């Protein structure tokens, strides 16, 4: 068994909504250049693979055939705003179908490799398009690669799949696909939907009638910082995932919870996001014999955040965690300057975050603690867990 499988090729940069759109493919390019210059691609046991576009039959495991046909037409210049195609968030571009279908193929490829025991961990930083719905594009997401990966795992025999979403925005598309599916647990830690797109993900949203407790939403107030964010993750994610006992974990690591991100109001540092990935990684080894599929997602501070968060994610999956004080390669910094005209970070992060585990006690005067307790009160009793005590 190899250690990890990473989907990457320059063709993934074709997912490009055009100049001025927040989801610039430069965030992927700069991330992978940093991953390479840090020497991570030379890790023994790492496989790097390219993929072609997913066939329609695969896309239609999570999308309506009529929607797939609409995306094909949009790729040829025929927008369909009723299906989210040709909007400000999701403008049409030539080859859109093939570009989006390639993201799906990548996430399904690594999920299959993990499930079949060929690798322990699978990585697709170009994936994590968690807003796409069965019949519509939404929030920069055309096809839902995370949902397709989860569905393939179920089709191939997984009894329980846990999906953990650490993006600043609620993972509504994945939750919606599996809302009434007891074999899938979706856990989303995000900024409160009353203050941020997509406006969903309330603590009381706990799943359909057949799957009560399998949708878990931690809705955090704006300006939640690193220590409080980690406390929220610690307070909810390990407990419900352990109770669910998944066969495999699929996680989404949008980097947009960072203070410098222009599209959210959270204040979560590179180190805190790195630690969040470590928590997920640890659960995969504790509960799933290491079976872990890690995806990218949002992240719009293209130069000074996304490459640092996602190179840290790759390093975590390769069991080679990076030192925060590690000087970033001067050659990479020069590439950033040439590509963007901006100064790149000199080190991975400023300092490690000190945070207080939930087990140390609940503070009723703290906004984040109250948000966490709301989730625990709605979800924990459905799993036979005490919302007030660990």
TrEMBL record:
<comment type="similarity">
    <text>Belongs to the histone deacetylase family.</text>
</comment>
<dbReference type="InterPro" id="IPR023801">
    <property type="entry name" value="His_deacetylse_dom"/>
</dbReference>
<dbReference type="InterPro" id="IPR037138">
    <property type="entry name" value="His_deacetylse_dom_sf"/>
</dbReference>
<comment type="pathway">
    <text>Ketone degradation; acetoin degradation.</text>
</comment>
<dbReference type="GO" id="GO:0040029">
    <property type="term" value="P:epigenetic regulation of gene expression"/>
</dbReference>
<dbReference type="InterPro" id="IPR000286">
    <property type="entry name" value="HDACs"/>
</dbReference>
<keyword id="KW-0006">Acetoin catabolism</keyword>
<dbReference type="GO" id="GO:0045150">
    <property type="term" value="P:acetoin catabolic process"/>
</dbReference>
<dbReference type="Pfam" id="PF00850">
    <property type="entry name" value="Hist_deacetyl"/>
</dbReference>
<dbReference type="InterPro" id="IPR003085">
    <property type="entry name" value="AcuC"/>
</dbReference>
<dbReference type="InterPro" id="IPR023696">
    <property type="entry name" value="Ureohydrolase_dom_sf"/>
</dbReference>
<protein>
    <recommendedName>
        <fullName>Acetoin utilization protein AcuC</fullName>
    </recommendedName>
</protein>
<feature type="domain" description="Histone deacetylase">
    <location>
        <begin position="21"/>
        <end position="315"/>
    </location>
</feature>
<dbReference type="GO" id="GO:0004407">
    <property type="term" value="F:histone deacetylase activity"/>
</dbReference>
């Amino acid at each position: 068994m190899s250690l990890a499988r990473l989907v990457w090729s320059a063709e993934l940069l074709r997912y490009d909504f055009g100049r001025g759109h927040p989801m610039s493919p430069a965030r992927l390019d700069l991330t992978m250049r940093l991953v390479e210059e840090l020497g991570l691609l030379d890790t023994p046991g790492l496989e790097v693979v390219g993929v072609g576009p997913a066939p329609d039959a695969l896309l239609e495991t999570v999308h309506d055939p009529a929607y797939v046909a609409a995306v094909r037409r949009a790729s040829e210049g025929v927008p369909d705003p009723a299906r989210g195609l040709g909007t400000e968030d999701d403008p049409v571009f030539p080859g859109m179908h093939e570009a989006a279908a390639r993201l799906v193929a990548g996430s399904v490829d690594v999920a299959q490799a993990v499930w079949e025991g060929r690798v322990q961990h699978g990585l697709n930083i170009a994936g994590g398009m968690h807003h796409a719905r069965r019949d519509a594009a939404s929030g920069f997401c055309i096809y839902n690669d995370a949902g397709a990966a989860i569905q393939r795992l179920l089709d191939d025999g997984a009894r329980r799949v846990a999906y953990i979403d650490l993006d600043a925005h609620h993972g509504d598309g994945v939750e919606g696909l599996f809302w009434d599916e007891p074999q899938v647990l979706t856990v989303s830690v995000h900024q409160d939907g009353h203050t941020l797109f997509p406006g969903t993900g309330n603590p009381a949203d706990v799943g359909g009638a057949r799957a009560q407790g399998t949708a878990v939403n931690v809705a955090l107030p704006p300006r939640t910082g690193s220590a409080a964010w980690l406390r929220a993750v610690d307070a909810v994610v390990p407990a419900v995932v352990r109770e669910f006992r998944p066969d495999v974990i699929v996680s989404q690591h949008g980097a947009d919870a960072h203070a410098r991100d222009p599209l959210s109001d959270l204040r979560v540092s590179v180190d805190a996001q790195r630690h969040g990935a470590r928590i997920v990684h640890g659960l995969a080894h504790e509960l799933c014999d290491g079976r872990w599929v890690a995806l990218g997602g949002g992240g719009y501070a293209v130069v000074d955040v996304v490459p640092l968060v996602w190179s840290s994610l790759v390093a975590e999956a390769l069991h080679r965690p990076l030192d925060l004080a590690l000087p970033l390669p001067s050659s990479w910094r020069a590439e950033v300057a040439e590509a963007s005209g901006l100064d790149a970070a000199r080190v991975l992060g400023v300092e490690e975050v000190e945070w207080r585990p939930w087990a140390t006690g609940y503070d009723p005067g703290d906004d984040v603690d109250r948000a966490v307790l709301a989730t625990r009160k709605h979800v924990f009793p459905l799993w036979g867990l005490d919302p007030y005590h660990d």
